[in-house]
Design brief:
Layout lengths: L7 H4 L9 E6 L2 E6 L8 H14 L6 E3 L11 E4 L5 E6 L2 H9 L5 E3 L6 H22 L4 H18 L1 H11 L7 H17 L4 H12 L8 H15 L6 H12 L4 H4 L22
Parallel strand pairs: 1-4, 3-6
Antiparallel strand pairs: 1-2, 4-5
Length: 283
């Protein structure tokens, strides 16, 4: 993973240090204006910089924006009235807003929110999936590539959003006669929207139970009991996901089944990061 550092405010010439700017609600429009000098309006410059940056970085697979920034804030930015009073907390930085409009499926997150293990896990899951698709499918899509790609992510998608699991499956079963580039774009939209839903304990348990089904004829009574106990403990919130997943993976990989081995659910991001050790999912 390669990181690129970008500061749109410096890029438009505001300099370091710079006088403060903020989001100002003006009718139905949100502008980025100077706090001390309301005549300073850098909205259009930030929008143009976002358009330029999107052209210069077509290969990026994720974007970490800076929180509480009138240019880069993504969630719950304060907007002010022209009299200086707070209007609401429904704003989005002008640069971030335009960038996200231009690349709507790109995984994005705020730097401060990445301290939350669950948000960090979801963001990086999407980043690596985004890169996987761009690398292995997008350049020259075929029906086989789309189906093979999704087959590796089926249980990952199930953990995130069951309705998407079924809708994507139905979509891929009816590719015949469709333009493959259009189909690829639509599949990718459905896929990334599915992963944008956060995996819950219920969703992960559902995926684990489906995977456990492959072991019905291969485990003795003691092994079945041990695995069931760990799954129940995870379902009750007593142990992290990695505990039942490690044992399940141990048993399944002994089957030497290429389909099971290929599942991204085991490691949606590099295991060495240890992200799943710290997650406390919503029920």
């Amino acid at each position: 993973m390669e990181f690129r550092s970008v500061c749109p405010e410096v890029a438009i010439g505001l300099g370091i240090p710079r006088k403060p700017i903020r989001l100002v609600l003006m009718g139905d429009e949100t502008r980025v204006r100077g706090v001390q000098n309301p005549e300073l309006d850098v909205t259009d410059a930030l929008v143009e910089q976002a358009e330029f940056a999107a052209q210069q970085m077509p290969d990026i697979c994720g974007y970490v924006f800076m929180q509480n920034s009138p240019s880069c804030g993504v969630f719950g930015m304060k907007r002010y009235r022209t009299n200086g009073h707070t209007a609401d907390s429904k704003g989005r930085g002008a640069y971030a807003k335009r960038f996200m409009e231009l690349m709507p499926l790109l995984p994005v997150e705020e730097a401060g929110r990445l301290n939350d293990p669950g948000l960090r896990d979801n963001f990086l899951t999407r980043v690596f999936a985004f890169h996987d698709f761009k690398t292995n499918v997008a350049a020259a899509p075929t029906a086989k590539k789309l189906i093979d790609f999704y087959s590796r992510y089926k249980y990952q998608v199930m953990a995130h959003h069951v309705p998407s699991y079924f809708s994507i499956g139905r979509y891929l079963s009816n590719l015949s006669g469709r333009d493959i580039n259009t189909s690829s774009d639509e599949f990718f939209r459905l896929f990334m929207e599915a992963l944008a839903h956060h995996a819950t304990r219920k969703g992960n348990t559902n995926a684990i139970m489906h995977l456990r089904g492959y072991l019905k004829e291969h485990l003795n009574t003691q092994d079945k009991h041990e695995l069931s106990q760990l799954i129940d403990s995870y379902k009750a919130g007593m142990v992290p996901l990695v505990v039942p997943l490690t044992l399940l993976k141990h048993h399944l990989l002994k089957l030497d089944n290429p389909y099971l081995k290929s599942q991204t659910f085991w490691s949606p991001h590099p295991e060495r990061l240890g992200l799943r050790n710290h997650i406390v999912e919503n029920v």
